[in-house]
TrEMBL record:
PROSITE patterns: N6_MTASE. It comes from the Eukaryota. SUPFAM superfamilies: S-adenosyl-L-methionine-dependent methyltransferases. The keyword Acetylation does not apply. The keyword Methyltransferase applies. This is HEMK1 methyltransferase. The gene is Hemk1.
Amino acid sequence: GLVTAIDMVNYWQKVFKTNGIPEARESSQYIVSFVLGAKTFQSLDSKSLHTPLTALHQEQIQQLSHKRLQRMPVQYVLGEWDFQDLTLKMRPPVFIPRPETEDLVSLVVEEEFQKCENSALGFPVPVPRPVILEIGCGSGAIALSLLCKLPQPNMFTCTQKQFPGEGLDSELIGKMLGLRASCHSFTFLGSAKQLLLWGPIDVIVSNPPYIFHEDMASLDAEILRYEDLDALDGGDDGMRVIKTILALAPSLLKASGSVFLEVDPRHPNMVEHWLQVHPDLQLTLHATHKDFCGKPRFLHIQKQSS
């Protein structure tokens, strides 16, 4: 019989719900709207919602829905996902950017624009392009967003391991920005020598692995089956990579340079205590910011000026 987009959403919502798929309705809406060329189901017009679907559209929806039934995250099912104003390609095991990480980007952007305003008030000279290092680039969501939102930053990214397709694609950057910003990506294998070549740095930003190891087993099946667990597991206290970043920061940052981190809500007090135990690093927890759920999620750590 004749099947519309609404019929398909209702049908697959029931199938997903019966099979214990989380966010059953949202998953079915994303898949149907994607096949029909829309970002969201709500953006489809009345004609698209009520016109009978072609056999090809029905087949495509069925194929994608069967992937979701295997607990594949909807981001991987669609092969793309929006982050800020970008549409990023997604495929396992590249880390899927979460909505809260958009707030991390916004904090860095606000900090840099504040510097520009302060500089303009006191010194009528051009503000130099900020040098920003991202550690652990994953899908490239953070770096690409900063390249788009900041006035021509010198952006560097590094990662501790390289997947096929991970890291920043120079062709993609060229298309997006017309090569108006310089960007470099390299693999970091535990030595700071490569990083020190690019210093001094204005900002280090990272969404590092921060989940406590004991919490890993309780993650959703979508995460455990498809995403790279090394991008999530932060060790016994969730601070294995965080400590590495903070230990490197003083030798990389300019005076009064900043580190912006996304962390577990339990980490702000732990990080503050750790910095107090390591006064030689000359780092201070400048501010803690909450996510949209009201949980302390983002740290702004500053290098003390000499």
